[in-house]
Each structure stands twice: as structure tokens, then as C-alpha cells.
Amino acid sequence: MTTPILTLGELAESQASKYITINTALRKIEAVTIRVLSQANSGPPVAPADGDAYIVDVQSGAWSAFAIDNIAYYSNTSWYQMVPKAGFRTWVVDENALYVYSSASWQLLVGL
């Protein structure tokens, strides 16, 4: 079972390796609540750092199966994607701007 909005894995009674489920959930929360580095990146970076997150703009390389406008986040040497829901907000670092996800795309909320 997962939570309905962020699809965070829920713990099951007598589940082994609970720390994996919890750690994965914490990384997902961090990826969508803090910031993304860019939404104009032409695919995944060559040398991402753990915790980097981007809005997918091109399906290529490690992101070839990811949907455009999903959030790609790098954790423990792998890329993961999160499907945004209406109302998600994220700070886009390279634009110094706050975006909100409508039902179809990311919209500029405020730029500084």
C-alpha cells in the first residue's frame, strides 16, 4: 500500500527491512518539498549529486522512461521519478522562481 498523494510506501505489519521503506519515503518528501535545480536541462546531468532533483524536460538517458514534467530525483546512485499532483510547489533554483503544478504543467507562481 502507498499513500494517495506522494505514493509513499506504507509499513506493513511484521515487515522486514522497515528502514528501506522509511528512507525511501523521506527522500521522496525531500525531493518534492525543497527545490529542483532546473526545468530546462536537456536530460539528466552527467555527474549528479545525491539529492539532486529536476523537472524532466527531455526523455533521454536515465530519464528515457520518465514522463515530461515529472520530477526526477537522484538518490543512492539511481534516478527515480515522481508524478506531480495539482498543487505541488517547487523552487526552481536556476530561475530563482517558485512554480506550482496545475493539472497539466508547471506554472510560474512568483519569480524574484
Q: Report helical residue fraction.
A: 10-25%
Spatial shape: globular
Number of strands: 7
Assess the beta-strand content as a share of residues. Answer: 25-35%
What is the CA-based Rg, rounded?
A: 14 Å
Question: What class would the helix/strand composition place it in?
Answer: alpha+beta
Order of SSEs, N→C? HEEEEEEE
- Residue windows where pLDDT falls under 50 for at least 5 positions: none
Order the strands across the largest sheet as they lie in space: 1-5-6-7
Give the biggest beta sheet: 4 strands, mixed
Gap between N and C termini, in Å? Answer: 40 Å
What's the helix count? 1
Global mean pLDDT: 86
Task: Give a written overview of the molecule.
Strand 3 and strand 4 (78-82) form a beta hairpin. The protein is α+β, with helices and mostly antiparallel strands and 112 residues long. The protein has one helix at 18-33, and strands spanning 35-36, 53-55, 71-75, 78-82, 89-92, 97-101, 106-111. The model has no long low-confidence stretch (mean pLDDT 86). The N and C termini lie far apart (40 Å). The chain has a domain at 34-111. The protein has 1 helix and 7 strands.
Identify the notable features of this structure and list them briefly.
112 residues, single chain, three-stranded antiparallel beta sheet, 1 helix, 7 strands, four-stranded mixed beta sheet, alpha+beta
